[in-house]
Design goal:
The protein is an alpha+beta fold and 220 residues long. It is built from 7 helices and 10 strands. The strands form 2 sheets. Strands 4-5-3-2-6-7-1-8 form an 8-stranded antiparallel β-sheet. The two termini are 27 Å apart. The relative contact order is 0.16.
């Protein structure tokens, strides 16, 4: 069974945190990470008011090949980062374990990450890795997908469905009147309008089925 871990790590102890440095209250958000050409390629989001200093700082890091703008919307820019992380880097190790970074954001001081491991065995391997490399990680919370947490039930959503719902909520898609269109959200995710519509519809169906048709009274 998949295990979710919420953790915090000092920026200087985390290779992406060393590269993506902005001063609080500005933060950098990791939108997704895609294995391209054998490299974990991060897609990251930054506020436009720190854009110039942020881009200069990132390009000046020795492990960075380039940072490319994907799109800009509502005062924020989405970038693709091309870099050469070391073989035993934090993010590369996570991906090799079959884990997925669901959420990550941080600044020049600290990063918070939400990581889904495929099982407890992989989580144990990750624990051994951080001990072996003396990485000062603080585990804030660990739970399975089937557990109810203070933030609500996970509803067995796929990563893509959860990502679509979170983006729609964050951008005001469900507000009346709507503050974002399906086209806007699809552009940010780099998928078609129909694909996004399907993700949101299926995710809503899972959530409503669990809440309205589930046996018991845990949501009443």
């Amino acid at each position: 069974m998949s295990v979710i871990v919420e953790l915090t790590v000092p920026s200087e102890a985390f290779e992406l945190g060393q590269i993506l440095r902005v001063e609080p209250p500005a933060q950098i958000a990791l939108e997704t990470m895609v294995p391209l050409g054998g490299q974990p390629t991060p897609f990251i989001r930054s506020r436009n008011d720190v854009r110039e200093t942020f881009e200069t700082s990132v390009r000046g890091h020795s492990s960075v090949e380039d940072i490319t703008e994907v799109n800009s919307h509502n005062g924020e820019t989405l970038y693709a980062l091309r870099w050469n992380p070391p073989p035993d880097s934090f993010l590369r190790t996570i991906m090799e374990m079959g884990a997925v970074v669901l959420n990550a954001s941080g600044d020049a001081t600290q990063w918070g990450l939400e990581v889904r491991f495929p099982d407890h065995e992989k989580l144990s391997a990750f624990h051994n890795y951080i001990i072996e490399h003396d990485i000062p990680i603080h585990i804030d919370r660990t739970y399975t997908l089937s557990e109810t947490t203070e933030h609500g039930h996970r509803f067995d959503l796929s990563q893509e469905q959860r990502e679509a719902l979170l983006l729609a909520l964050r951008k005001g898609y469900f507000e009346t009147p709507s503050e974002a269109s399906l086209d806007d959200l699809a552009d940010e995710l780099g998928i078609t309008r129909q694909a996004l519509s399907n993700r949101i519809r299926r995710a809503n169906e899972k959530v409503l089925t669990e809440v309205l048709l589930s046996s018991g009274t845990r949501y009443e």
